Structure formats: C-alpha cells, structure tokens
Amino acid sequence: xxxxxxxxxxxxxxxxxSNLLSGVDISGYLTGIFVAALLGLMNVFIKPILVLFTLPVxxxxxxxxxLVINAVLVLIVESLIDxxxxxxxxxxxxxxxxxxxxxSILYSIFERRERKxxx
Length: 119
Prior knowledge:
By secondary structure, the chain is mostly helical. It has one domain (2-116). It is built from 6 helices and 2 strands.
C-alpha cells in the first residue's frame, strides 16, 4: 500500500509541475500516474546501470552528473508516454530537480505522520 501512496503523491507532483512549468505539458491525471509509475521503475532498474557506467564522470563532477542522468530518464519517459511532453533538456533538468525536491518534502511529511501514528 505504501508504494501506491508514493506513486499517487508523485503523480500529484508531476501534474502540479506541469501546471507550473511552461515547458512541461501533461494531458491528464491518469497520464500523471503513468509518468510517476514509469519514472519509479526507471529509477529502480535503469538508473543504477547508468550511474555505474558514468561513475568516473560523476566522481569528477562531484555528483552533479546525477542531475543529467535524472534529466535523461525524464526524457526517456517523455518519449515513451504520449500525453507527456517536455520542450527540451533544460526543462527536463529543471523538472527532475523540482520533482526530487518536492518528493523529498512530501515523503518526509508522510513518513513523520506514519511514525507518530497519524495515518
């Protein structure tokens, strides 16, 4: 059940960011759920492989290259889902950074509430 809640929270953030950012467009809430689920799968299965292959560049850039990897994953998801459009690499980078920040904030709020037993 926890994973479903994370996907729904991520979908809410994806839809909200598409309304805030002019370079990101999403066709609806269901598309937001698909984008969030696919991004989650990409982060679990594809991202570790990309990080492993780009480890020297990541070390040289003190980890900043991980932002590029996140943007590339967003662009891959954009190419796989029809109702999700991003206007370029820089919008994907900005979208991925904001998505990560808002996910961290909301996940920590839900985790704190769960620890207190306020479900």
